[in-house]
Amino acid sequence: MFACLYLPLPVNSAPGRAEGRGQRAELAHAALLQLARDFSPRVEIHGDRTVTLDINGLGSLIGDPRSIGEELRRTAADAGLRVHIAVAATSTAAMLLAHARAGLTVVSRGEEAAVLAPLPLSVLSLAGFGLRASDSRPGAASQKPGVEQLARWGIRTLGDLAALPSDALAARLGQDGLRWQRWARGEDARPLVPAGSAERFEASLDLEWPIEGLEPLSFVLARLLEPLCDRLEHQDRGVVTLHVRLTLVTREMHERSVDLPAPMRDARVLRTLALLDLESHPPPAAIDRVTIGVDVTEGRVLQFGLFARALPTDKLATLMARLGALVGSDHVGAPSLVDTHRPGAFAMATFEPSHTPNPKSPTPHPKLTPASVLRRFRSPIPARVTIEQGRPARVITDRRGFSGGRVERCDGPWRSSGDWWKHAWNCDEWDVTLRDGTGYRISQALDDRQAWFVDGLLD
Questions:
Q1: Across all residues in the chain, what is the average pLDDT?
Q2: Stated pTM of the model
Q3: What is d(CA 407, CA 64) in angstroms, rounded to the nearest whole number?
Q4: Does the structure show a pLDDT above 70 at 313?
């Protein structure tokens, strides 16, 4: 059995601002949805003013379908809602009757088509079943038929539509006509699809006396996070972002958010992360109220191999938070490449460890393997370079362990270092190979000194 609750628009609504009307509509929709959820966890939402709920199983608690409908109407009246209520064996019949009749309507099983037969065709458009209410648009004759077109064919009620031969109806109206006919008979085209409940995971505590410092705050956070993590455990949810909102004695709000590397629901770890973040960004005054909110996702389920080591997510998150509190959050992370040829250029990204690579994964194609690698020195080595015909002919350096000599091969000059769209060129670079096979990347500074340097080894 199904029950449909329809909240009609008030006939005489006082004129007011659009914002006020919109706010009242949101409050009415929330109250209607809460009313339905108080009776059944399986609730489907149809727009802002209609909900359908599955009432199977309420017979042992409330009684027969009429008693359930009377209880729904009484509860709605106590909540200040004037709704149309229909109870039927199919959700389609309940929706059509709730939109067509005020008050409470109860239909016995098997009598849906007979009860729906006298209803006008406009109920299908009013209930949102895809039939247009009017054909007054330009070119409507070439579009799908509406209520007025079907009325010109002599079809004015749901009973008239339900009594037509299905083959002839499909030949003239296609699949749309067959769907309208099934709905006119009160048949369900699909099962009820329950809407997920947007449960908010938030906890607050008003303090009797203002507190200062992290030590008393840690006890408050533990008191809030432990029951919150228990709720997350029951709902199989994990925290991806932790929000801490502190109301200060100055009536200001101190808000901090901590992004987690993986979903977790350990109260001790969450408290440690929140305290470490507040240690780096302490509140400027004493605290009157503490609020904890979390953004959640489905619990993470990982299946590791027999000899694979699980990622230390909780310990890693705590370590990263401690390092961030010590050296600053901008100085902790993983280096990432940037779109530039400037030597040593990188950006700091969030550190997200990956799993151990699969040893059975295919190796890269030999053609994609780089032919040479530049091992750049952290500090370039001064060198003396002999130029012949505008190209390096000999390279000599005084650094112990680095060879020098005649240049057998020379490529360049390269002007690839630096962001050319931001800065002017500051050096010319050459790739040279000496007689003993040693490869160097050398550069000449484009300044008054015209000094030469060995930037790195070519392998």
A1: 80
A2: 0.48
A3: 99
A4: no
